[in-house]
């Protein structure tokens, strides 16, 4: 999967979870990546999967946010 912008759990009170699984799986983010911008965001990368980005990732950005990454 390729995208320009990725945002998981952007709004206060929201919950979002992304799981990328398997050696042939890749998520390419060419723009900004927000994980838990204002809500509760989780990213799980497992079994040889890959997540790449051209920019920084903001994880748990706001004071109301939680961001969790598990590899």
The strand line-up of the biggest sheet is 1-4-7
Structural class: mainly beta
Helical fraction:
under 10%
List the secondary-structure elements in sequence, H or E.
EEEEEEEEE
Number of helices: 0
As a percent range, the share of strand residues is: over 45%
Q: Give start-end ranges of low-pLDDT stretches.
A: none
Mean pLDDT, rounded to whole units? Answer: 96
Radius of gyration: 12 Å
> Tally of extended strands?
9
Main sheet record: 3 strands, parallel
Distance between the termini: 18 Å
Bulk shape: globular
How would you describe this protein?
This protein is mainly β and 71 residues long. It has no helices and nine strands. The strands form three sheets. Strands 1-4-7 form a three-stranded parallel beta sheet, with no helix packed on it. Strands 2-5-8 form a three-stranded parallel beta sheet, with no helix packed on it. It has a three-stranded parallel beta sheet with strand order 3-6-9, with no helix packed on it. The chain is globular and about 35 Å long.
SSE order and pairing:
Blueprint: E1 2-3, E2 6-8, E3 15-21, E4 26-29, E5 33-35, E6 40-46, E7 50-53, E8 57-59, E9 66-70
Give me a quick take on this structure.
With 71 residues, this protein is mostly beta strands. Helices cover 0% and strands 54% of the residues.
Tags for this entry?
71 residues; mainly beta; three-stranded parallel beta sheet
């Amino acid at each position: 999967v390729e995208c320009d912008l990725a945002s998981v759990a952007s709004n206060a009170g929201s919950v979002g979870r992304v799981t990328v699984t398997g050696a042939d799986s890749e998520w390419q983010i060419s723009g900004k990546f927000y994980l838990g911008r204002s809500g509760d965001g989780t990213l799980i990368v497992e079994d040889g999967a890959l997540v790449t980005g051209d920019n920084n990732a903001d994880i748990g950005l706001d004071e109301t946010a939680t961001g969790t990454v598990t590899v």
